[in-house]
C-alpha cells in the first residue's frame, strides 16, 4: 500500500521560549533562547514527509506574516497546500515555553486555521490509497468542527482515516467527537484522552472499549504511553505493548506528532502495525533529542538508530540513558 497523507488540520506559528522553569504567578522570567517556527499540524506532516510519504495540506492558511511564514515552511518540506488562503485573517500562533526538564506549556491564539467550510475544502480531493488525518484541534474550533465532521463522514469507505483527539478533547462536543470516531480507521491518543473517550481502567480494557463501543470501523488503536512506548490493539484481537527507547531528552515539543506521522508513513509502506509502532517509537525518541517541534528524523536516521541499539531500553549511542519522559503523551 502507498498513497499520500492528506492532512486536514491546523498549522500555526510557534513562538518558542526556553526557560529554566515556569514563572510563578505575578513574576517574570528571562528566556535563554527564542525561536519562531512552524508548528501545530506542521510537525506531523514533516514526520510523515521525512519518512518517505507524499504529504498535502488541506487545512487553511491565513493572509499575513504568519500565513506567509507557514507557506514558506511547507514549501521547504515539499508539502503542497490545496486550499485557498483566507482573505480576512492571518494564521494563528502558539506560545510554547520549554522548561529545563524538557516539558512544555502552551498558550494558543487561533486564526485562519480555525475556520473551515465545505466550500473551502472543495479543492481537497482524495484518491485511492490516500490516508487522511485530522486532529482534535480543528474539531475543537466552533468555526470548523461541523464542516470537518461532515467532510470526514463523506469520505469513501476505502480511504483510511487517522484521528488524534489531542489534549483539547474536552472542548469537542461529544456528538461531533462520536461522529468522527465512528469513521476512524486508526486512533492514536494518549491515556488521558483514551480515558476521556472510553472511561477509566487498565490500558487493555480501555483499548478494547474504544474499538467495540466508539471506533467500530477501526483497524486498530494506539495508546501512547511516554517512557513505556505505546500499546497497540488491533480489531482482530491482537495486542502488544511496544517498548520505548531511553534517550536524553532536551525538547519534547512535537514528539506525539512525530510518533503519529512516522506510524502512518510506516503503515502506508506496508509495515505491520506492531512494527510500525516500534518505528514510530524510535522516531519520537530521536525527535526529543533535538530542539524544535518539527525535529522529526528521516527514514534513514530511524533505521540507523534501530540498527545500532542493543535492546528497547538502550540509547542511540549504545549506552543506557535516562528514561524518555512522557513525550509520547502528547
TrEMBL record:
Q: Which UniProt keywords apply?
A: Kinase, Transferase
Q: What is this protein called?
A: Ribokinase
One Gene Ontology molecular-function label: kinase activity
Pfam families listed in its UniProt record:
PfkB
BP GO terms, sorted: phosphate-containing compound metabolic process
- What Gene3D superfamilies does the annotation carry? 3.40.1190.20
Q: What family does the database annotate?
A: Belongs to the carbohydrate kinase PfkB family.
Matching InterPro entries:
Carboh/pur_kinase_PfkB_CS, PfkB_dom, Ribo/fructo_kinase, Ribokinase-like
**What SUPFAM superfamilies does the entry give?**
Ribokinase-like
Q: Residue limits of the Carbohydrate kinase PfkB domain?
A: 5-295
Amino acid at each position: 500500500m502507498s498513497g499520500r497523507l492528506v492532512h486536514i488540520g491546523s498549522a500555526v506559528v510557534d513562538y518558542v521560549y526556553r526557560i529554566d522553569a515556569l514563572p510563578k504567578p505575578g513574576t517574570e522570567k528571562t528566556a535563554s533562547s527564542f525561536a519562531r517556527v512552524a508548528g501545530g499540524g506542521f510537525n506531523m506532516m514533516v514526520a510523515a514527509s521525512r519518512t518517505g510519504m507524499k504529504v498535502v495540506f488541506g487545512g487553511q492558511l491565513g493572509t499575513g506574516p504568519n500565513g506567509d511564514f507557514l507557506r514558506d515552511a511547507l514549501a521547504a518540506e515539499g508539502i503542497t497546500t490545496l486550499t485557498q488562503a483566507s482573505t480576512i485573517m492571518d494564521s494563528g500562533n502558539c506560545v510554547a515555553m520549554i522548561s529545563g526538564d524538557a516539558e512544555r506549556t502552551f498558550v494558543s491564539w487561533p486564526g485562519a486555521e480555525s475556520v473551515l467550510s465545505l466550500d473551502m475544502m472543495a479543492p481537497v480531493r482524495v484518491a485511492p490509497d490516500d490516508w487522511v488525518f485530522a486532529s482534535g484541534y480543528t474539531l475543537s474550533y466552533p468555526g470548523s468542527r461541523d464542516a470537518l465532521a461532515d467532510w470526514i463522514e463523506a469520505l469513501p469507505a476505502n480511504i483510511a482515516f487517522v484521528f488524534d483527539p489531542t489534549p483539547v478533547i474536552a472542548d469537542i462536543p461529544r456528538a461531533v467527537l462520536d461522529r468522527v470516531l465512528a469513521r476512524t480507521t486508526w486512533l492514536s491518543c494518549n491515556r488521558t484522552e483514551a480515558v476521556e473517550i472510553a472511561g477509566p481502567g487498565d490500558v487493555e480494557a480501555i483499548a478494547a472499549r474504544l474499538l467495540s463501543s466508539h471506533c467500530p470501523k477501526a483497524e486498530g488503536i494506539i495508546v501512547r504511553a511516554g517512557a513505556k512506548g505505546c500499546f497497540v490493539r488491533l480489531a482482530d484481537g491482537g495486542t502488544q505493548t511496544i517498548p520505548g527507547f531511553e534517550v536524553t531528552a532536551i525538547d519534547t515539543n512535537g514528539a506525539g506528532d512525530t510518533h503519529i506521522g512516522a506510524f502512518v508513513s510506516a503503515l502506508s509502506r506496508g509495515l505491520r502495525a506492531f512494527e510500525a509502532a516500534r518505528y514510530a517509537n524510535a522516531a519520537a525518541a530521536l525527535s526529543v533529542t533535538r530542539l524544535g517541534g518539527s525535529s522529526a528524523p528521516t527514514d534513514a536516521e530511524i533505521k540507523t538508530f534501530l540498527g545500532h541499539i542493543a535492546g528497547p531500553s538502550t540509547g542511540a549511542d549504545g549506552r543506557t540513558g535516562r528514561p524518555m519522559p512522557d513525550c509520547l503523551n502528547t
